[in-house]
Amino acid sequence: MEITEEKNRKTIKIQDEIQKREIPETMDSAMWITHGRPEDWEKVAAAEQACFPPAEAASAKHIRERLERYPSHFWLLYENGKLVSFVNGMVTDEPNLTDEMYENVGMHQEKGRWQMIFGVGTLPSFRRKGCAGRLLEAAIADARLQGRAGLVLTCKERLLHYYEKFGFVNEGISCSVHGNAVWYQMRLTF
Known about the structure:
By secondary structure, this protein is α+β, with helices and mostly antiparallel strands. It contains 6 helices and 9 strands, in the order αβααβββαββαβαββ. Helix 2 (41-51) packs across helix 3 (60-69).
């Protein structure tokens, strides 16, 4: 009985922390972060296509399936009502990010230990303004609040130093061959 009550209190605390970010601080706030909703799929799919090469971008179908299955694992940054940056992924007990996870939404385990990050994207005209960093910080904070073991992502060699700034550690070349690219797996453990 006590375990259930404590778990309910933790759930409410997590929801309260998340909701604080979903509402702009003031009515004239130009930038805010929110979680995805299934109806956001077209905006997110368009942003995905603008941010990644065709061989690496998720299809609109996959974005829609992901948003229907795990919308709270999409972090979206809006500026003046326009989606300008996003981070998305799923949760699993599997310790390594595999290519199958990108396409199989059934692998998502809401109570999983690891928050996988599939994509970190910012529209080209909004890059180098801290948008992706704000979203990564939100994803990290949520994973910590949810009691996850940490986060896992893959990136190209040129981005290793960027993710290291957030505490991710390079584990070497990933088994992923997504988009016929060489990926490095990075892990942030709490």
